Amino acid sequence: MLQKSEKMKNMKKMMKMKNAMIKISLMLLISAVIIPGCKQAGAIGYFLTPPREKKVQAEFPGLKNHSLAIVIYVDEATQYEYPSARLTLGAKIANELDENVKKVRIVQPISVARYQDENIHWETERKNKIGRDLNVDYVLFLSLVNYSTREPGQMSAYQGRISGEAKLYATEKKEGENCVWEHEDDLEVVWPKVARYSSRVEPQIREETENRFADLLAKKFYKHVIDLDKEEEENE
Predict the structure, then answer these.
(1) Distance between CA atoms of 138 and 127, rounded to whole angstroms?
(2) 108: helix, strand or coil
(3) 171: closest CA among 125, 142, 225, 131?
């Protein structure tokens, strides 16, 4: 019985080694067929090298098991040109946080927008009062500096651009001492790198720019992993 067991183990090891060699051979064959010349070496290295990753800690990990309202400020000109900006961007930020922060409870963006519209002086209100009015533990206040789907100074060059200042306020703390997190610089996303000149792509550009900004902001509040190779490629 022991001999049979050892034979089975050896056979399984041999099968694993065989499968691994087949995979490597296929990768080498694909690179040889698709990629000519000296670029083959780079392609082979790409297949055999594991991705470079970096673990990033949350800048503020305290949203777990707490309630949150995302309050977005836009100026009158932006509100006129993009009347749904608070709702669409707020919803994307809420979705990112809901998917990645355990048991966080987020007020619906439409409820926050209604509160803003019904309280015309909400901008001058104390943040802890806003938190109590919305019945939440924290208020994530995002003041948009820029929100546009066009390249600056151009009417027919489409390029998404969102930037803003983000701060987190704790409702239970006294005013003046209740800012528990803020980003040192404005958060900014510009997409795509090169402007496009068809109005048909404007909805897609707006959607993707909002997705990227929401992802950028939400990641300040949970641990995540950065693909360094992908990041370098996007920054080139």
Answers:
(1) 9
(2) coil
(3) 131
- Alpha carbon dihedral 174, 109, 217, 137, in 10-degree steps, equals 30
* Residue 208 one-letter amino acid: E
The arithmetic mean of pLDDT across residues 182-211, rounded, is: 95
The radius of gyration of the chain from alpha carbons, rounded to an integer in Å, stands at 25
- Quick check: pTM over 0.90? no
CB-CB contact of 200 with 158 (8 Å): no
Interior CA angle at 137 toward 135 and 142, to 5°?
95
* Residue position matching structure tokens 């996007």: 234
Polymer length of the chain: 236
DSSP string, 140-201: EEEEEEEEEEE-TT-SS-EEEEEEEEEEEEETTSPTTS-EEEE-SS-EEEEEEEEEE--GGG
Mean pLDDT of 170-186: 93
Q: Using one digit for the tens of pLDDT, what is the confidence trace for 125-174? A: 999 999 999 999 999 999 999 999 999 888 899 999 999 999 999 999 99
pLDDT digits (tens, 9 = 90+) for 48-68: 566 788 899 999 999 999 999
Q: CA–CA separation, 86 vs 197, rounded Å? A: 26
Say whether 105 sits in a helix, a strand or coil: strand
Cβ count within 10 A of residue 224? 15
